[in-house]
What we know:
By secondary structure, the protein is α/β, with parallel strands linked by helices. It has helices spanning 44-51, 74-78, 95-105, 110-123, 139-151, 169-186, 221-225, 234-238; strands at residues 4-15, 18-29, 33-37, 59-64, 67-68, 81-84, 157-161, 189-193, 206-211, 214-219. It folds into two domains: 1-80 and 162-248, Rossmann fold (3-Layer(aba) Sandwich), CATH 3.40.50.300; 88-154, no CATH class. The protein starts with a strand and ends in a 10-residue tail after the last helix. The relative contact order is 0.17. It binds adenosine-5'-triphosphate and magnesium ion (MG).
Amino acid sequence: MHNIILEVSNLQFMRGKQQVLDIKNFGLHEREIIALIGPNGAGKSTLLQIMALLLKPTRGILTYRGIAVDSRNALAIRRRMAVVFQEPLLLNATVYENVATGLKLRGVPREEMKKRVDRWLEMLGIAHLAGRRSHQLSGGEAQRVSLARAFVLEPDVLFLDEPFSALDFPTRLSLLKELDKLLKDTGIAAIFVTHDFSEVPYLTDRVAVLKNGRVIKTGSFEEIFKVKPRRENYLTSLYRVFESDAAG
Ligand SMILES: Nc1ncnc2c1ncn2[C@@H]1O[C@H](COP(=O)(O)OP(=O)(O)OP(=O)(O)O)[C@@H](O)[C@H]1O
Ligand SMILES: [Mg+2]
């Protein structure tokens, strides 16, 4: 197993008097992909936001490559991470500008910026949409733009909070397969929140189950679900109907 890249210890998070999270220890290894599952309100999104340094824990420490996160190093560490939310949060600008923004903020030179943006637009199959404005995209296209925005930053850690839940099954399946390959090829570590267990076999080295703010189980797919992971399933074969263009 690789080293731990990001870890929370003795984490507590309160919203007013409500204890939303209480986690003794939870860590993500380099190159690892964790599926984070659990019922509504379990605290999955909150945990992701804390690990992505978007929200400060009430108690506890976060360590990044063994270094405790504090107010001095937080911004630099934050820049090693990227987040994709359920609803694509795009700027009212072109697809190209949306993907380029993070690099602009990081002061990446123009030439290199263009190279990286073009590469990720290509990788996500949206190069032809570069000049399109964000409000003129379908949900699936917008989510591809969100993924390109995240990958172009070349993060060490990627957080995905139900990124595909609004998409139709064929789009979701093709994005899952692409994302699986992209993460493996780039070696980016990721935490992936989903309610759709059929997505879990694609993007998972380890499953973590969150309930009432606690990590109650972690383990391989088989250990958690007591069945073998299957990628090609009945639904996949039904949706082959979309693969041919011929009218029938
Ligand atoms: N902005 C907020 N203000 C107050 N309470 C909140 C806020 N966001 C979340 N909560 C509460 O914090 C708890 C954890 O919420 P969180 O969004 O992390 O759950 P989740 O596991 O992501 O749920 P879901 O599966 O519905 O997305 C819930 O009890 C929720 O009601
Ligand atoms: Mg959530």
